[in-house]
Design brief:
Elements (H helix, E strand, L loop, with lengths): L12 H17 L6 E7 H7 L4 E3 L5 E12 L2 E6 L2 H6 L4 H15 L2 E5 H10 L3 H5 L1 H5 L9 E5 L11 H14 L3 E7 L2 E6 L6 H14 L12 E4 L4 E4 L7 H12 L10
Antiparallel strand pairs: 1-3, 2-3, 3-4, 5-6, 6-8, 7-8, 7-9, 9-10
């Protein structure tokens, strides 16, 4: 499936046969190990797969699945979601897939941090009319947007998982640079929005923005999540963000403490 279409299109018979031949050749030659990488999907998407190995992220909001890189060129990247059956043909369980993806993904698709205003200027320079019509265009006029960063990979495709690379190194570095905890907003499966946590932002208002953008701008299959996350730089932990006066905040803290000794549910064989 072609990531230029986010795996949404069904390949024709000829293309499907070519993919099968290519996968069989990789299996026969044992050259698939360095081509396994990961991407993020929503919990609903992951739970709807049924036969795809993966694992939930530490914050419990998303799921990491694994893909086999088939090819890449100037037009995009072609890959295949790894199913239980394909994983079995590779003689890899979920843990083996995770280890391979953790090693390969940062090399195949290096992380990239950009200021939101710079990305939007690129879109405007490319004369993309949808940008001017979207709710995000109004946001760009506010001074707060100057502190918003986009975290993705260098292709800006299926890059939301870049913030989890190498034990969240991207977030570690950004929080140290800003000397602040961070608020993370799930923009889409392609990128995350990150902004410094000054203690003044209303999480409920940020989540209203997420809901508005998800409902009016993001394609349903590209929606990643609906909740804001908080990154704490002193502990290197991600969790669901709560307003300072939320009674659920301390409850979440206690649950995270208990979860450290409890393995996360993992999919796959």
């Amino acid at each position: 499936m072609d990531e230029r279409n986010n795996g949404a299109t069904i390949p024709g018979v000829g293309q499907a046969n070519q993919i099968l031949v290519q996968v069989d050749r990789m299996l026969d030659q044992g050259i698939y190990d360095r081509r396994i990488y990961s991407s993020l999907v929503s919990r609903d998407t992951y739970e709807g797969y049924g036969n795809v190995p993966g694992r939930y992220t530490e914050d419990g909001e998303y799921a990491m699945i694994y893909r086999l890189l088939l090819g890449r060129d100037a037009e995009g990247v072609t890959s295949l979601v790894i199913s239980d059956r394909l994983a079995e043909a590779m003689s890899l369980d979920e843990e083996g897939l995770h280890e391979a993806a953790a090693r390969n993904t940062p090399e195949l698709f290096p992380p990239k941090i950009e200021k939101l205003v710079d990305v939007m200027k690129d879109f405007e320079a490319a004369d993309i009319p949808e940008i001017e019509e979207s709710p995000q265009a109004d946001v760009l006029e506010s001074p707060e947007v100057q502190d918003v960063y986009l975290v993705s990979n260098e292709t800006r495709v299926l890059g939301a998982g870049a913030m989890y690379y190498e034990d969240k190194k991207v977030l570690q570095d950004l929080s140290e640079s800003l000397q602040s905890d961070l608020i993370v907003l799930p923009s889409s499966i392609h990128e995350m929005m990150v902004l410094p946590d000054d203690g003044q932002k209303k999480i409920s208002e940020l989540e209203e923005t997420i809901e508005s953008v998800n409902s009016s701008v993001i394609k349903p299959r590209e929606i990643l999540g609906w909740k804001a996350l908080r990154y704490e730089r002193n502990t290197n932990e991600l969790s669901v963000a709560r307003d300072q006066d939320s009674p659920e905040r301390e409850q979440d803290r206690q649950q995270r403490k208990a979860a450290r000794s409890t393995p996360m549910r993992r999919g796959g064989r």
